[in-house]
Amino acid sequence: MVQGQGDGPSPSSLLYSWEKIQGPTATLSGVNTPELEVKDLVAEEYVFQLTVVDVDSGLFAKSAQVVVNVINED
Predict the structure, then answer these.
(1) Closest-CA residue to 16 (of 33, 3, 30)
(2) What are phi and psi of 12, to 5 degrees?
(3) pTM of the model
(4) Cβ distance 31 to 18 under 8 Å?
(5) What confidence tier does 13 reach under pLDDT thresholds 50, 70, 90?
C-alpha cells in the first residue's frame, strides 16, 4: 500500500489521482483515493505519482519511489 495526503480547507474538496509513471506492469486499485493498493509487482524500481487537486485552491503533485526486492525463501 502506498499512502498519500492532501491538505485543503475541507477533505471533501480534494480529488486524488494515482498513476504509475515508471516501472513494469502492476495492478493498481484505489487510484482515486489517498491509499493506492499495488499488486503483481516484480523485483524492479517503480515510481508512482499522486496528483491531488483542491477544487478550492489549486493542484499539487507528489511522486513516491518504491523499490521491490526479491526475498530469498531458502
Answers:
(1) 33
(2) -75, -10
(3) 0.76
(4) yes
(5) confident
